[in-house]
Amino acid sequence: MKFRYTLEALAIIAIIAFSGIFLYTSSTMSGAEFAGSDNVGSGLIAELSGIPLENFQPLIPQWEPPSGEIESCLFALQAAVGGAMVGGVFGFWIGSQKKA
After folding, report:
1. Residues 17, 11: Cα–Cα separation, whole Å
2. Is 6 helix (H, G, I), strand (E, B) or coil?
3. Are 47 and 39 in contact (CB under 8 A)?
4. Tens digit of pLDDT for each residue in 1-21?
5. Is residue 43 a contact partner of residue 53, using CB atoms and an 8 Å limit?
6. CA separation for the pair 93, 99 (Å, rounded)
7. Mean pLDDT of the region 18-31
8. How confident is the model at residue 74 (pLDDT cuts 50, 70, 90)?
9. Quick check: pTM over 0.70?
10. Which residues contact 56 (CB under 8 A, 6 or more apart)?
11. Is residue 71 within 8 Å of residue 65, measured between CB atoms?
């Protein structure tokens, strides 16, 4: 017996399983606060170098946007440009396969 939509069914099952795992783990972590990789990395560098985190200065100073809306806009713009690039590469690959 051959199933017609085997790959689609597996994808739906995987999405449901990962969603369930994410919801379970996020609900059991009460009081946990997410720290971004910048904070964790800076803390580890300060710990390994022996320089207190308060005195730690990055080599390249970071620009902080004037508001959270601008920061969100820049993040969305970055995601859109990245998505367009990935879509362009996949479109080129698929188009070149259809020509040959």
Report:
1. 10
2. helix
3. no
4. 567 778 888 999 999 999 999
5. yes
6. 10
7. 85
8. very high
9. no
10. 42, 45, 46, 49
11. yes
Cβ-contact 46, 53 below 8 angstroms = yes
Determine the length of the chain: 100
Which tokens sit at 15? 């999405």
Distance CA 22, CA 86 (A): 26
Amino acid at position 55, single letter: N
What six digits make up the tokens of 25? 């783990």
Residue of 77, 73, 53 whose CA lies nearest to 65: 73
Q: What is the DSSP string of 33-70?
A: ----HHHHHHHHHHHHH---GGG---SSPPP--SSHHH
Quote the distance between the C-alpha of residue 43 and its chain's center.
21
CA distance 19 to 38: 26
CA distance 92 to 37: 34
